[in-house]
Amino acid sequence: MSDVIVLGKGPAGIQAAVYVKRANLNVLVIGKDGGALAKTDKIENYFGFDLVSGTDLLQAGINQAETLGIEVKSEEVIGLSYGLDGYTVTTTQDTYHAKSVIIATGSPRASLPIPGLKDLEGRGVSFCAICDAFFYRQKVVGVLGHGDYAAQEAHELINVAKEVIVFTNGLEPTGHFDPRVRFVKTKVKAIQGDQKIESALLEDGESVTVNGLFVALGSASAVDLALKIGAYVEKNKIIVDEKQATNVPGLFAAGDCTPGIMQISKAVGDGCIAGLEAISYVRSQK
User: Fold this and answer.
1) Do residues 238 and 258 touch, judged by C-beta distance below 8 A?
2) Distance, CA of 236 to CA of 232 (rounded, Å)
């Protein structure tokens, strides 16, 4: 078990990990990619650099972490849970355990602009199968997505629901899905229902009846992971206090996934605070 697992290998995540490691605690960094920074061509407003590319700055941070002996894994995180024994992080390749977790996976992508999807959130449209599967016992539920994150959500539902339908929205499935799921590959035109979700209307005119729909587009975002364990989220941002702490004990968040300006300098500052507070939390548990 790690003392701290950092989700995200951008500026906030690496900075947090550096502080944790230098405090002589065991820290693991897990991140699928470099996020928005890896796609930034030129950076001219960061302290100490006249000009640097996002890719070079990102790699410099990872190199610094690895030089300190921090293990940085390039894996996609698809699950996060919290219990008496601490935190469990599930990736497409393995399962990891820690006493504390810092979420630093950047700003979540926008949901698909499907009419009715936003309106029916909390009324049959959900973002956490492990949280809400119980409410759909012996009912027909859908999962919107096509990758490993969607496959994980479907896995949580398959032994509870009467039927699980995976709506890939026109894409071919790439995740490792349970063979018992049914695929609908036609694009979704609208989500229908009055007081609660009733069906998914497809572009070819077919209406597929569902009692619930779990949104699992692309990779699990910071907000998706936070919601899974009951952390407060508002306007697609994880709510933290001045110590970068969420309302869940031992769970911290830093960088673009939290409120405020989306700048590298802020992310690094957030990571510093989150790392120091995670150190204090872990030591208080011993």
Assistant:
1) yes
2) 10
**Residue 246, token pair as written in the block:** 């969420």
Q: Compute the distance between CA of residue 131 and CA of residue 15 in angstroms, rounded to an integer.
A: 31
Look at strands 233-234 and 237-238 and give their pairing.
Answer: antiparallel
Residue 274: count other Cβ atoms within 10 Å of its Cβ. Answer: 32
According to DSSP, residue 121 is labeled B
> Which part of the chain is CATH 3.50.50.60?
2-109+220-284, 125-215
Which residues have C-beta within 8 Å of that of residue 170, sequence separation ≥ 6? 185, 186, 187
Can you give the pLDDT at residue 236?
84
How far apart are the C-alpha atoms of 179 and 160, rounded to whole Å?
A: 15
Rg (CA), the chain: 20
Contact present, 223 and 238 (Cβ < 8 Å): yes
**118 within 8 A of 32, measured Cβ to Cβ:** no
Specify the 3-state DSSP secondary structure of 64.
helix
Determine what percent of the chain is predicted with pLDDT higher than 70: 98
Over residues 81-137, the pLDDT tens digits come to 998 889 999 999 999 999 999 999 987 655 678 999 988 988 899 887 877 888 899
Query: Parallel, antiparallel, or unpaired: how do β-strands 212-215 and 233-234 relate?
Result: unpaired
Domain 2-109+220-284: CATH architecture, name and number where available: 3-Layer(bba) Sandwich (3.50)
**125-215 has CATH 3.50.50.60 classification:** yes
